[in-house]
Design a protein that fits this description.
β8 and β9 form a beta hairpin. This protein is α+β, with helices and mostly antiparallel strands and about 260 residues long. It contains six helices and twelve strands. The chain binds biotinyl-5-AMP (BT5). The site of biotinyl-5-AMP has 33 residues, from α2, β3, β6 and β7.
Length: about 260
């Protein structure tokens, strides 16, 4: 990975400082510690390889050397953005979807934090919060994207089919260029995070809209219903049995017939 090229993107787009690692445990772990230690707004931790990459709920995220993009953005929210922090995962999702669209790839968002291409996972996001007492000090937005075919882990390590940009395009764009486009997307969407357009665009990119889905909540409880859309805070809205509207704040979504 060309560190100079990565830094150039940060400078050009007015981001913060870049911390680059050939290999690291998890970029989110490093970014959480750095954020707590005063990292400037829009700083980024990026690694060529992660040995302890994390998903949600103690699940793993695999990033092998030379194959993927794995980075964590530190966001220090302005007062005006504070009411909208639950939309942070949407910020990353829209930036990733737009960067793929630039390459002719129509990706969708499997709520809350997976990006799918042709029904397979090409990217994942992990958003974590740094608190000072009751206040949010910073958000850490972790992004992992499979760029080359070799980034896709063996099936026995996966709970969902996976793909890569190379699988979809036949060729491999430079990782530095994808990184640049994602940062440009973040810069473009960040000032619009408080708008209705933000939610509507995010909603329009959701996988399984209008379909019967099943959500497994953190507790293991199952909710089934038709996926209607998003609430203003980014929660998922379903129409369950007897037309009851159910709002889900956390969970894993699957199509009902897959269950
Ligand atoms: C996620 O969790 O998808 C969040 C992934 C976030 C990764 C980034 S990389 C930079 C930053 N640093 C970190 O340590 N993490 C963030 P979840 O929805 O819980 O999905 C995890 C599941 O995805 C695993 O259980 C596997 O089944 C699958 N998986 C793991 N690695 C994958 C890969 N490279 N491609 C596709 N699927 C993968």
């Amino acid at each position: 990975m060309n560190e100079h090229h990565l830094k150039y993107s940060l400078n050009r787009l007015n981001f913060g400082i870049l911390r680059y690692f050939d290999s690291i445990g998890s970029t989110n772990d490093d970014a959480l510690a750095w954020a707590a230690d005063g990292a400037p707004d829009l700083s980024i931790v990026l690694a060529d390889e992660q040995t302890q990459g994390r998903g949600r709920l103690d699940r793993r995220w695999f990033t092998s050397k030379g194959t993927a993009l794995a980075f964590s953005l530190i966001l220090r929210p302005s007062a005006s953005l504070r009411p909208y922090l639950s939309r942070s995962v949407g910020l990353a999702a829209l930036a990733i979807v737009d960067s793929l669209q630039l390459r002719g790839l129509e990706a969708h968002i499997k709520w809350p934090n997976d990006i799918l291409l042709d029904g397979k996972k090409i990217a994942g996001m992990l958003v974590e919060t740094v608190w000072t007492g009751e206040d949010v000090d910073a958000m850490v937005i972790g992004i992992g994207i499979n760029v080359t075919r070799a980034a896709v882990p063996p099936v026995d390590l996966l709970n969902f089919p996976a793909t890569s940009i190379e699988d979809a395009l036949g060729g491999t764009p430079e990782r530095e260029e994808i990184f640049h486009d994602i940062l440009a997307g973040i810069k473009a969407w960040l000032p619009r995070m408080d708008t209705d357009t933000f939610i509507r665009t995010w909603e329009a990119k959701l996988s399984f809209r209008g379909k019967q889905i099943q959500v497994t909540e953190g507790s293991g409880k199952l909710i089934t219903g038709e996926l209607l859309g998003l609430e203003s805070d980014g929660s998922l809205r379903l129409r369950a049995e007897h037309d009851k509207i159910v709002i889900v704040h956390f969970g894993d979504v699957s199509l009902r017939h897959e269950a």
